[in-house]
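To close the chapter, one final illustration. This time we ask the reader to focus less on the individual chains and more on the assembly as a whole: which components sit near each other, and how the overall shape emerges from the parts.
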Amino acid sequence: MDDLLNLPCYDLLQTEKEQKILSVLNDLTRWHYKRCRSYRSILDMYGGLQEYKSLASIPYVAVSLFKHFDLLSISQPEIFKVLTSSGTTSQTPSKIYLDRSTATQQSKVLVKILQHYIGKQRLPMMLIDHAEHFTDRSEFSARGAGIQGLSIFGRNHRYVLDKDMNLNTDALIEFCDRYKNEQVLLFGFTFMVWDRLLTELKKRDHRVSLPRGILIHSGGWKKMHDKAVDNTTFKETVRYRLGIERVYNFYGMVEQTGSVFMECKEGFLHAPVYSDIIVRNTVDLRECEYGEEGIIQVLSMLPKSYPGHSLMTEDLGVIIGADNCKCGRKGKYFLVNGRLPSAEARGCSDTFKGAI
Amino acid sequence: MTQNSRLYTVFAEALGVQIDQISDELKYNSIPSWDSTAHMVLIAALEDAYDVMLDTDDIIDMSSVVKAKEILAKYDVVV
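The assembled structure is written out below.
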């Protein structure tokens, strides 16, 4: 496991990678079967624990299970931090229990993945959010956890929204003036970047220029699709309003914090060595062919304190291929196409109720 | 003031604890006051105090007070 964490993020061919991570995922399945009673009950209903011969045969649980049950494979005193999903008041949030070592691994892996895209240095950083996510430090919202994970890459962090999610124009202009010729990092959840920053700038007929900026964003496209904004439009608007060319989306979820799927310059999301993706038919759950749309299942080597190493999401997506993306990264690459029609809005940016 | 106590002072102030709680053996995440939120405050405080620019590997590697000394030594800081 530790050896795998030290491998380069995107160098293994899919077949090599599958061989390596299969044993880790088998170990994790055994570990959680032993330590988490609810997980054991689920597996027992489906024939009990086995030695799984392929990634696709590793059992998966629905991501919504973490809303309804306290699923953990550690004892109470080992609980170090609880992450909660971005459920709104009408929705039950997921609860993810972390011990120290799982939390540490998550940070390490997130840093390794991001270093691949933006380097090791830390940059002056603008956060398109407010600064009030950290009132109770033992319990983090998914948004808080995302902000904190990304903050490692920043220095002189500047939050440009106030606590009511309104744009603080003075903070924005000050940041842009101060760093206009420097490499800077911006992070925000997709819908908030769109609705609270880009749309506000448009309303005011205002543009800023951060030509050496890098924008990283994440957190769900459902609301963006509701507004008929796709990734191309988003990027074009970022270029026009902020003067930023380097824009990276990533696909991730609080149930598998750390091992995120980053977008390459070709516009595809890539599975790093620490995690993988399978797409399944929405009717019979068989594994889809490349190019065929279905429900996304995510696998990660990191969840040790809770049984979240193999999860069926509520997202629709399509795997484009493996090992042959023009960007040069190996492994599977894919697109997320939206949410299952029956699924609730639950992304970090989708649960923001602001100006809708 | 010895160098060690200067480093300890930076740690104590950044983490919001008494200086007698700081020792070389103190580890990241071993006390509630040194969690991931405090870690970023600590990094900024160390950068200010010793006039260095730490990178993301340094932040991840800084798992104890003694490790902080090693990392600062890389930047020719004697603590």
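Chain A has a mean pLDDT of 91. The CA atoms of residues 158 and 349 of chain A lie 19 Å apart. With these observations in hand, you are ready for the problems at the end of the chapter.
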